[in-house]
Amino acid sequence: MKLLLVDDxxxxxxxxxxxxxxxxxxxxVLEASDGQEGVELALKERPDVIIMDxxxxxMTGIEATLAILKEWSDAKILILTSYLDNxxxxxxxxxxxxxxxSKLPVQRKFYGLFVRxxxxxxxxxxxxxxx
Length: 131
Prior knowledge:
single chain
C-alpha cells in the first residue's frame, strides 16, 4: 500500500512515516509539506490513502482535498487534525473528505482504516482488470 502524508510539520510527518513504515502492507510513505505540494504528488502518484492536515501554508488541507477530489473522485483522504473541537472539523466534513481523525493517539485506528481502504481499492482494481 502506498500512503501520502501531507502536513507542514516535519516532526509530525517523520513520526507518522516512521510508525507507518513498520506496518505490514505499507510499502511506501510519500511526504508533502503543504497543500499545493500534496495535490501535485497525489495526482501524480495516486496513493492508496492520503493523510491530510487541515492548517497548512500556501493551500489548506480543505482546499487541497477539494482540488484532489475534483480531479480524482475516488481518492481516499483522511483528514488528520488537532482541531476536532471547533468549526474547522465541521467545515472539513461539509467539504467531502472521506474521514476525519484527531492527531491525538490514533495510530491503531487509522492503520485499520488504511488496511480496509487498501483492500477495497485492490478489489476495485481486480474488477476493472476483468472487464
